[in-house]
Model the fold of this input.
Amino acid sequence: MMEFPEFLEIPLADLIDGIIAWILTNLGGVLDAIGDGLLGGLVAMERLLLWLPWFVIVGVVGFVAWRALRRWWSGPLMGGFLVFIGMLGYWDLAMMTLALIIAAVLISLAIGLPTGILMARNDRFASVLKPLLDAMQTMPSFVYLIPALMFFGLGKVPAVFATIIYAVPPVIRLTNVGIRGVPQSVVEAAKAFGATSRQVLVEVQLPLAFPSIMVGINQTTMMALAMVVIASMIGARGLGMEVLLAINRIEVGRGFEAGLSIVLLAIMIDRITHAFAAQQQYTKSP
Amino acid sequence: MAHSGNGNNSLDADREVCVEVRKLWKVFGHEPDRVLDDPELRVATKEEVLTRAGCIIALRDVSFSVHKGEFFVLMGLSGSGKSTLIRCIIRLAEPTAGSVFINGNDICALDEEGLSEVRRHTTGMVFQHFGLLPHRSVLDNVAYGLKIRGVSQEERYEKARACIEKVGLRGWEGYLPSSLSGGMQQRVGIARALAGDPEILLLDEPFSGLDPLIRRQMQDELLELQVEIQKTILFVTHDLHEALKVGDRIAIMRDGEIIQTGTPEDVVINPSDSYVRQFVQDASPTKVLTARTVMEQPPVLLYSWQGPKAALQTIRDANIDSAFVVTRKARILGQVTVEGLVALIRKRGTFLKDALDPDILTCHADSILDDLVPLVASTRYPVAVIDEDNRFLGEVYVSTIIANMIQEQGPGEDVETSEEVQDNPAVLEGPEDTEENEKTPGDGPSEGAEQA
Done:
């Protein structure tokens, strides 16, 4: 009597399994095509990063960091982080991780920016999407690994797929918030001078929402980094895999080295993208 | 100069209609048609409509027309619908029913593209909160309307520079709006509206966000600009003083309806109902009354052919010490004073014109009393009121102006008024002068009548 009645239980798990099975049998070709496309891009990105001499990459990162942070020491510091990772012996693995992150972030933005814009311009779409985004962010990230694994097998592709699902919500959300936060008076003024809704979007809303969108990109990048580490569990090579191996073999020193490399990579990416977001303030004279 | 627009009211009827609003309704809510289709709700109070239909009536059956080149003011308290009304004219707010015509074109029938065309070429708007693009320079902001039209960069920058110069912001082209003060930002807003050389300017409380001193200065500048550009202007404000100062005609709004339309003078002197009366009771009459309204006929008017002795006699009989001299066709020549006449008679002069002082103070019949204050403060003689052809119409006494100024310092003691007095200390300093002049004309108004 006191226990929850059995007849009320819903076989949701079976239902989901059924859907996944149906997708696998009927859309297998499509999934393969997507997987091959993704893999091609990923491998190209990885090869490029590994082909480039290490000092070129350090130089580029240092220059970008100096431009973004506008401090003389920021370039050497961020470049130094990379050199330090290399000194720990993780250069190649770090480049593989970076390739995964860049691919996942680029695809996330390609999906997230238009979705965010659409969300800002359509209240009904926004009200449907909001709970979905909440769910996507609250769901334990490991759960995404399972369907990714089933759709694309082991390796890089499912890792990127799971990473995108996990990392795309912030950029959608903050694009939406940014556009909605543009002062109504400015939008109205643009309309009063005969701007079409496309002109309003491109010349008023997007530029004014830019700081918010940059924060979204920053968050998406950081979440992608976090997920890429977890995604090593389904066979994505990189720094995450080192951590995983260290756990399996209980090698504290190795785990710490790999973990530290991830932290340095994270600081580097975060500071640079964050600085780009903060740069846009409309209070300076020329 | 600032008030020159006020004189053209009588011509309005003959002028071309530029903007016409006909039976315009704007109802906010889910079922606006329920209100429009129900003859009872159409006339019900706002509260009643809200409880019975869940709708808010922002505009109720509003009709008015604005003539070409007219400075038309929509005035009302917040919530009276004035801002909604000006937005409905270019459909920034969509009217629920009724029509708007600009130069005979039905704006409500236009599709998106046609509407954009009108907004790009025919109208220019200025907003209370400026609505400037914070990420663009002053120059780019002013050129924005032209950019939307697809004008080349070179051409639009050239026009924008000219407009920036016109509003006195030369040298600020490269700055971002945030580095400018409120008043300067609004100048950018005005320049932006002018850059496209639109026929109609829509100004939605442009000066409400500015502090009083800047506000007054901007009003003066706008009036000066209007003399130069001669646009049709629709101006929204909640400030009666502002409305009276800038408007050729004023429409007073309450609860989404226009309850009175008229010249500033009309509105102050003949309020249509108690609401308007309450509204205008604080208004200083000196700001709207014209010389024509307050001028009096002089007790004595002399003609150029009269002899000095007869003239002196008439003036003394009237117990005054000066009189104006006119030609047969009433053109003013100047004035003679008792001292001047006495001196002339002693010298055995025989022509009145030898004692004539042509250097007198005159004012146009449409001059506002406020503008006369500095004039009358400098003399102890009355000021002659004349028309365009230099014909004498009447005279204005210092005392009349003072009386009107005192009247405005009613129990309300409004800030604007006390400031006004401080601005003109000369008026306060000359009470003796005033009394003298006040008595002289009043004592013998009829004696000299046969002379006139």
Q: What stands out?
A: Chain B has a mean pLDDT of 80.
